[in-house]
Write a structure and sequence with these properties.
The structure holds two protein chains of two kinds. Chain A is of the alpha+beta class. Helices cover 28% and strands 20% of the residues of chain A. In chain A, strand 13 and strand 14 form a beta hairpin. The longest helix of chain A has 50 residues. By secondary structure, chain B is mainly alpha-helical. Chain B folds into two domains: 89 residues, Orthogonal Bundle (Rna Polymerase Sigma Factor, Chain: A); 69 residues, Arc Repressor Mutant, subunit A (Orthogonal Bundle). Chain B starts with a helix and ends with a helix. The chains are: A alpha+beta, B mainly alpha.
Chain lengths: 368, 158
C-alpha cells in the first residue's frame, strides 16, 4: 500500500459530521464557555469575600492588639477584680476614675494620675470626663497637659478650684491610678456669671479701691494670663493681703479677697457697675473661714437675713469715674446659705469660666 | 491566553478536523459524539493550559486523541452491539483499513492518522505526542512497515 492509498483509505474512514454530533459539539462549546464564565464570577466573588474577611479580621486584630498592648500602671489583666470586663477598656477606665472621683472629699483638691496610658485612651478619657464635667461632674477640671501620652493627670475639685496653697496630704495607689489629695488654703475665689465689657473696667477698679480702701497712689500689679476661653487678670496689691481677679469673657466677674471680711460681688449693667444680684447662676465665694453662696433662684434669697449660719453682704455704693464720680446704681445682695450645708457650693459652675492658676501667680498649684 | 471569543472561534473552526480524527480512531458514532463533546468541555476547562495561540491546533488535537484513546480503552472491556452493526455497514476495504489501524499500537497509529489524514507535519505531531521529531519519524516508519506487511498479506490472500 502506497502513501496515497493509505491517505485515501483514511479519508474513506471519515465522513461529514452528522447534525446530531454537530449540535452536541456546539452545545459542549457553549456550555463549557458558560461554566468558565460562571467559575470566573464565582472566583471573583470569592476573592472579594476573602478580602473583606481579611480586612475585617485585620481590623479586629488591630483593635485587639491595641487594647491588650496597654500597660496600665503595671496592672495585669489577670489580676483584675472584674474578670467579666476587660479592665483596659475605655468604659472600665472611666468607671474606675469616676468611682475614685466620688470617693474624694469635696473640700479636697485631688489629682488622679496614670502612667503609660496610650494616647488614644487618654484622649477618650479626656473627652469623656470633659463631657461629664459639663453634665454631671462640674468639679472635674481638666488641665491642658491631660493629653500627654505617657503620664496623664485629671484634676478633681468640687466646686470652684480655689486659689491658694495646695498641700499634699495623701498619695495612694487606688485601682491602678495614683490619687494625690491636696488640702487647699484658698486665698480667694473668682467666678461669676455676668458679662462685663472693657469699658466697665474702670468702674470696677474704682469700686475695688473703694472697697479695699486703696489709695490712688498705691499701684496695682497686673498679671495677665490666658484662660481656657477668656482672659484673666490678676491684681496683686503690694503690701496688702488682697487680691482681685477679673475674668473677662462671656460671663464674668466676681471679686473676692481672703482678708476682706465682706466680700464684694460686682457685675456690670448697662448703667454701670453694680453690686451683683443673684438672678443667674454662678456666683460663688469660697473663703477660708467664711462661705458665701447664692442660689439660682432669686426667691431663695432673704434680704437682710442675718441669722447664724448665714452670711450677709451689705450693700455697697459705686461711683463711675468716667462720669464725674456720679453714683451708679446699687443693689442689695443678701445671698444666704445654711451653715450646716456642706461646702459644695459651686456645683453649677461651668469651669470654663473659672480662673486658671499659673506659675506666675504666687501661692498657686500648677499641675504637671 | 486567548480570550473567550477567540477561543470559541478557534474551537468551532477545528470541529471538522476533530471529527475526522475521531472517525479515524472510533468506529461508533456515539463514541465520536462523546469524544467531540468531551473534547470541547475539556478544552474550555483547561483553557489556561494553552500558552500561545499558535499551539491551539496541536493542543486541541492532543485533547481529542487522548479522549479517543480513553474511549478505546473503555470499549475494549465491553462489546458494543453498535460496533458490530457498524462493521456490517462498512465496506470490506474500510473495515480492513480500520482493523489494520486498530492492530497498530496507539503510539504508531496517532502519527499515522494525523499525518496522512489531517496533514500534520512531523513537528506538529511531535507537539501532540510530546516527543521528539525523531521518535515521530521512527514510529511512523514502524507503522507504515506494519501496515505494508499487513496489507500485502491480505492482498496475497485475496
Amino acid at each position: 500500500m502506497t502513501e496515497k492509498e493509505l491517505r485515501d483509505n483514511l479519508n474513506n474512514l471519515t465522513s461529514q459530521i452528522p447534525d446530531e454530533t454537530h449540535r452536541s459539539f456546539l452545545m459542549a462549546v457553549s456550555s463549557g464557555k458558560e461554566n468558565v464564565i460562571m467559575k470566573k464570577k464565582l472566583s471573583v466573588g470569592l476573592v472579594f469575600a476573602i478580602l473583606i474577611s481579611l480586612v475585617t479580621i485585620a481590623f479586629a486584630a488591630t483593635e485587639l492588639a491595641q487594647t491588650f498592648s496597654v500597660n496600665w500602671s503595671g496592672e495585669k489583666q489577670e489580676g483584675s477584680d472584674l474578670p467579666e470586663e476587660d479592665p483596659l477598656t475605655m468604659t472600665h477606665l472611666i468607671r474606675r476614675m469616676t468611682s475614685i472621683l466620688y470617693s474624694v472629699p469635696e473640700d479636697v483638691f485631688a489629682i488622679i494620675e496614670g502612667d503609660d496610658l496610650p494616647s488614644r485612651q487618654t484622649r477618650g478619657i479626656t473627652r469623656t470626663l470633659a463631657s461629664l464635667d459639663e453634665v454631671q461632674h462640674p468639679g472635674i477640671r481638666l488641665p491642658k497637659n491631660i493629653a500627654k501620652e505617657k503620664n496623664f493627670q485629671v484634676e478633681l475639685s468640687f466646686g470652684c478650684l480655689p486659689e491658694g496653697e495646695y498641700k499634699l496630704i495623701s498619695e495612694e495607689s487606688r485601682d491602678g491610678f495614683t490619687l494625690k489629695q491636696y488640702s487647699v488654703e484658698p486665698d480667694f475665689l473668682v467666678c461669676t456669671g455676668y458679662n462685663i465689657s472693657y469699658s466697665d473696667e474702670e468702674n470696677i477698679w474704682h469700686s475695688i479701691r473703694s472697697q479695699l480702701s486703696i489709695t490712688q497712689n498705691q499701684e496695682f500689679q497686673f498679671d495677665q494670663m490666658d484662660g481656657e476661653d477668656h482672659m484673666v487678670e490678676t491684681v496683686q496689691i503690694p503690701g496688702m493681703d488682697h487680691a482681685v481677679f477679673i475674668s473677662r469673657g462671656i460671663n464674668t466677674t466676681l471679686i473676692a479677697t481672703r482678708t476682706l471680711e465682706q466680700p464684694v460681688i460686682l457685675k456690670s449693667t448697662p448703667g454701670g457697675v453694680e453690686e451683683a444680684t443673684t438672678t443667674y447662676p454662678y456666683e460663688c465665694l469660697h473663703l477660708k473661714n467664711a462661705s458665701v453662696s447664692s442660689h439660682k433662684n432669686e426667691q431663695s434669697h432673704h434680704p437682710g437675713a442675718s441669722a447664724p449660719g448665714f452670711f450677709h453682704i451689705p450693700p455697697i455704693r459705686l461711683t463711675d469715674n468716667r462720669q464725674g464720680s456720679q453714683p451708679i446704681s446699687t443693689n442689695k445682695v443678701t445671698p444666704t446659705i445654711p451653715a450646716t450645708e456642706p461646702t459644695r457650693y459651686c456645683e453649677q459652675l461651668v469651669f470654663s469660666e473659672l480662673f486658671i492658676p499659673t506659675k506666675n501667680t504666687p501661692g498657686k498649684y500648677t499641675p504637671g | 491566553m486567548l480570550d473567550e471569543r477567540m477561543f470559541t472561534r478557534k474551537l468551532l473552526e477545528s470541529e471538522q478536523m476533530l471529527y475526522r480524527i475521531a472517525c479515524a480512531f472510533l468506529r461508533s458514532e456515539a463514541d465520536r459524539q462523546d469524544a467531540m463533546q468531551e473534547s470541547a468541555l475539556k478544552a474550555w476547562k483547561n483553557r489556561d493550559g494553552l500558552r500561545e495561540e499558535r499551539f491551539f491546533k496541536t493542543w486541541i488535537t492532543r485533547i481529542m486523541v487522548n479522549e479517543c484513546k480513553q474511549l478505546l480503552r473503555k470499549n475494549k472491556k465491553t462489546i458494543i452491539a453498535d460496533n458490530i452493526l457498524d462493521q456490517q455497514i462498512q465496506s470490506h476495504t474500510e473495515l480492513d483499513v480500520r482493523l489494520m489501524l486498530e492492530s497498530l499500537p496507539e503510539k504508531q497509529r496517532v502519527p499515522l492518522i494525523l499525518h496522512y489524514l489531517e496533514g500534520f507535519s512531523l513537528q506538529e505531531i511531535s507537539q501532540v505526542q510530546k516527543v521528539s521529531i525523531g521518535i515521530v519519524k521512527y514510529r511512523m516508519y514502524q507503522a507504515r512497515k506494519a501496515l505494508r506487511v499487513e496489507w500485502d498479506g491480505k492482498e496475497e490472500l485475496k
